[in-house]
């Protein structure tokens, strides 16, 4: 019978990483199966961000996207910059992120690049994550990725 690892506190102290039977430290993964928030956490829900400016007109103006790089490398760097802005506005940091929902328009072409950049951006912290491939993003068909996040911030 495999022993189940004890919960491990996430860097912020507002949540714990949970593993279950079958956990193997040797397996490299960009997500963990579960994170439990503790009672002193404030939850922050961050709308989906892309490589486009967070603040843009509705209806969308195609010329705004003209300045966004067409490649996933460029888009994902801007996306994580946008996520940093939202986290800072909420008084949160990267290690407070407990969940991501990632929407790709082409997983086969883009997922390895995004996983690498995401791993570097988090610097060892690993949130829960769900990845979905969709036909297109609502903002503009040239955008390749959108990420929605939830953070658990220690209460003041």
Question: How is this structure best described in words?
Answer:
The protein starts with 7 loop residues before the first strand and ends with a strand. Helix 2 packs across helix 3 (107-122). It is of the alpha+beta class. It is 24% helix and 28% strand. The chain has three helices and seven strands, in the order E-E-E-E-H-H-E-H-E-E. The chain has helices spanning 62-65, 72-89, 107-122; strands spanning 8-9, 15-18, 34-37, 41-49, 97-104, 128-133, 145-154. The chain has a four-stranded mixed sheet. The chain has a three-stranded antiparallel sheet with strand order 1-2-3, with no helix packed on it. The model has no long low-confidence stretch (mean pLDDT 90). The protein is globular and about 50 Å long. The protein has one domain (8-154): 2-Layer Sandwich (60s Ribosomal Protein L30, Chain: A).
Give the helix/strand layout.
Elements: E1 8-9, E2 15-18, E3 34-37, E4 41-49, H1 62-65, H2 72-89, E5 97-104, H3 107-122, E6 128-133, E7 145-154
Parallel strand pairs: 5-6
Antiparallel strand pairs: 1-2, 2-3, 4-7, 5-7
Helix pairs in contact: 2-3
CATH architecture classification = 2-Layer Sandwich
Order of neighbouring strands in the sheet with most strands:
4-7-5-6
Tally of DSSP β-strands: 7
CATH class: Alpha Beta
Mean pLDDT: 90
From the N-terminal CA to the C-terminal CA, the straight-line distance is 42 Å
Helix content estimate = 10-25%
Q: Which regions have little confidence, pLDDT < 50, spanning 5+ residues?
A: none
* Beta-strand proportion: 25-35%
Please state the structural category: alpha+beta
- In N-to-C order, the SSE pattern is EEEEHHEHEE
Radius of gyration: 17 Å
Count of runs of 4 or more consecutive helical residues: 3
Number of domains: 1
Tell me the major beta sheet: 4 strands, mixed
CATH topology, which one? Answer: 60s Ribosomal Protein L30, Chain: A
What general form does the structure show?
Answer: globular
